[in-house]
Amino acid sequence: MSTTGKPRIVVLGAGFGGLELTTLLSETMGDAVDVTLIDKGDAFVFGFSKLDVMFGLKQPEAVRLPYARYAKPGVRLLKRTVTAIDPERRRVITDDGVFDADYLIVALGAEYDFDATPGLSGTNEFYSVPGAERLRHVLPTFKKGKAIVGVCGAPYKCPPAPSECVLMLHDYLVRQGVREACEIALVLPLGSPVPPSPETSRALISAFAERGIQFLPGRRVASVDNARNVAVLDDGAEMPFDLFLGVPKHRVPPVVLASGMSENGWIPVNPRTLETKYENVYAVGDGANTGTPKAGVFAEGAARAVASALVAKLRSQGDARLYDGFGTCYIEFGGGRIGKVEVDFFSGPAPTGNYYEPSVALRADKETFGSSRRARWFGL
Question: In CATH, what is the architecture of 8-110+252-322?
Fold first, then answer.
């Protein structure tokens, strides 16, 4: 308990999971609890906005949602860098203070392991905000030759994003008037673009074929030889390129690795309750090994389950809601059209997906997805 006698809840990471969890706690408990949300950054950026920035569709500043706008009763959001986590004691050490918790939620997401793929740090990637901003200036210089979108390992955030990237790249090169002088290829470790939904995967593969995009499934980029401009795949095959757009291998942040919480690169949890092996310690979002994709909408669902569990514990009444493993993803097909897939991981014996054909009308749905969260979390 805090000095005020209120339960102390410390949430690490102000991404989809951390923002939704603390918002729910504030709405339900108000200032009856002492909630601290810690993040090293000063703004939130939707993952899908990086593609918009990269292709010049939005300005970098326009997609930043400042944490200074986040104000919820009972919650304080602090800009700190987490330097150590002691899950046994539920203690967090930062560059400016130590925080002890009655309940600790780790929602620090996944980070990029550039060193896992030799040569990757010497080329382009579009999964980070700086990487997307850099490519915004690189792409106009690409007038002819071969572009490769190469994924360096799985799992990775937002599984449809590499497919979206090649389709948006096609549109971009058409707008630039240079598409006929360029080739596009996609190297993907997965067997299909969206494995839980064969219908969605078929639609994307058809879109690739219609646009003359080479698709190499079940392969990954193992290294990049920047001296020769060659991507080396995991089977030893070499792919020359004039433009390389990489997706780095993912892992939990080093501070999580050092804490001993992770196994095989991710934090093991009960997939329905998000509980770790440590008492009153939960993991939410991309860093947790739940069996669901690493995407914001799934982090939100996990956050709702944890918020429900915490409220039930704190009030000593009611039943906690289990994580349902359900999420909706919007997919850019190019030409202004958006497709949608609803994926359910836990209702049946195997994941299932419902596919909605791409349309201009679905773009409004995607815009609503973003605007509703901007309003809910930031009052914008």
Answer: 3-Layer(bba) Sandwich (3.50)
**Listed residue (54, 335, 56, 59) closest to 171, CA to CA:** 335
Judge if 8-110+252-322 and 114-250 fold alike in CATH terms: yes
Domain ranges of the chain: 8-110+252-322, 114-250
Token code pair at residue 148: 């490769």
Mean pLDDT of 337-347: 96
Identity of the amino acid at 95: D
Q: What is the pLDDT of residues 136-183, one digit of tens each?
A: 999 999 999 999 999 999 999 999 999 999 999 999 999 999 999 999
The Cβ of residue 213 has, within 10 Å, a number of other Cβ atoms equal to 21
**What is the pTM (predicted TM-score) of this model?**
0.96
The neighbour count for residue 257, using CB atoms within 10 Å, is 14
For residue 255, give every residue at least 6 positions away whose Cβ sits within 8 Å of its Cβ, in sequence order, or none. 82, 83, 84, 85, 108
User: What is the rounded distance in angstroms from the CA atom of residue 46 to the CA atom of residue 59?
Assistant: 13
Which helix H or strand E contains 244, and what residues bound it? strand 243-247
**CATH, domain range 114-250:** 3.50.50.60
